[in-house]
Amino acid sequence: MTMLLSDFDYTLPHELIAQTPSQKREMSRMMVLDRSTHEIEHKHFKDIVDYLTEDDFLVLNNTKVIPARLYAKKDTGALIEIFLVKETEPHIWLTLIKPSKRVKEGMKLTISDDLEVEILKKDDDKWFVKLHYEGNLYEILDKVGNIPLPPYIERQLTSEQYKALDFERYQTVYAEKPGAVAAPTAGLHFTQKILKELEQKGVNHCFVTLNVGLGTFKPVKCENILEHKMDSELFEISEESANAINKAKKEGKNIVAVGTTTVRTLETTMAKFGEIKPVKSTSELFIYPSYEFKIVDKLITNFHLPKSTLLMLVSAFTSREFILSAYEEAIKEKYRFYSYGDCMLIK
Predict the structure, then answer these.
(1) Cα–Cα distance list, 229 to 175, 213, 215, 287 (Å)
(2) Which of 19, 37, 31, 23 is nearest to 319 (CA)?
(3) Diameter of the chain by CA atoms?
(4) Domains of the chain and any CATH numbers
(5) Does the pTM of the predicted model rise above 0.85?
(6) What does the buried/exposed string (b/e) look like for 153-175 if buried means 16 or more CB atoms within 10 Å of the residue's CB?
(7) What is the pLDDT of residues 22-46, one digit of tens each?
(8) Are 344 and 22 in contact (CB under 8 A)?
(9) Is residue 211 a contact partner of residue 235, using CB atoms and an 8 Å limit?
(10) What is the Cα–Cα distance from 271 to 49, expressed in whole angstroms?
(11) Interatomic CA distance for residues 29 and 45, integer angstroms
């Protein structure tokens, strides 16, 4: 069966790409999609409390975005951007460097008094570097790094006006495990108050961790999407969370995944092991229409880019036609799109 990239295209007016978060997390708009009746409702995220009951069980991704974008100045005054992609062994990181032609093997770049970057070797379009520092790297990055916003947020990353805002808002309120270079954006709408209100209704939750990598922005380049290969992303499910998910499933509860990263964590575990169990593994799972979901029953997700693997995943969860018609409706109703945008509940 051939499935074409062009089947997952739509046209989005540029002004609907959210450049900043909503004033309050819970006041983002929420489109509610019913998979069985194809009904669409327009709500706000705070209304999620009305849509979930004690028959639902929430699973959230508690990964924490690291300030992975670093700036170094060469002796000439030229600015070099170093984007930390992932740590491959202690102190050794795979990075993206811009402009790449300005660096060479053996060069050392100073980020701050606490942090120096040594260029090791090139690997395709990326570079391996060694970070020289003492103490806790993540504490140093909090001081000297910048939050790595997606490329479609077109504003000055080093602007102090936005730096504090992004440090707070491009992070879920339950972010705990550092390692992601992009936020699990469906979780950005939650507040501790909403989680507490849901608990009071009998809607319990647990956390899994998937460190969102650069692959989240990787475009699909082959017209036959079946030829696309997903980047590998590290995930972990604790014993406590595995037990909680299995208990909820045994009790007949709906598993509500918050975000596509949570979907891939749960579905990868089911595909690899046939059950949810305590595990530290990697996901390369590509979910597209005709995929049969093994554990996820409901999904909270943001609006995704045209031709993206994330749009293909949500199309698999309901149907491509229903999703694209819902996106048309969202554009007509002037919903805000992408990372800092509004969301959907698909039930």
Answers:
(1) 28, 14, 10, 11
(2) 37
(3) 65
(4) 5-65+171-346 (3.40.1780.10), 69-145 (2.40.10.240)
(5) yes
(6) beeeeeeeebeeebeebbbbbbb
(7) 999 999 999 999 999 999 999 999 9
(8) no
(9) yes
(10) 31
(11) 6
Could you tell me how far CA 228 lies from the centroid of its own chain? 19
Would you mind telling me the total number of residues written for the chain in this entry?
347
Neighbours of 342 (CB within 10 A): 25
Chain-centroid distance, C-alpha 151: 14
Residue 254 in tokens:
């709906």
44-59 tens-digit pLDDT: 999 999 999 999 999 9
**In angstroms, rounded to a whole number, what is the distance separating the alpha carbons of residues 171 and 20?**
13
CA atoms of 301 and 282, how far apart (whole Å): 22
Kindly report, residue by residue over 115-128, the tens digit of the pLDDT.
Answer: 999 999 998 889 99
Give the integer Cα–Cα distance in Å for 68 and 140. Answer: 11
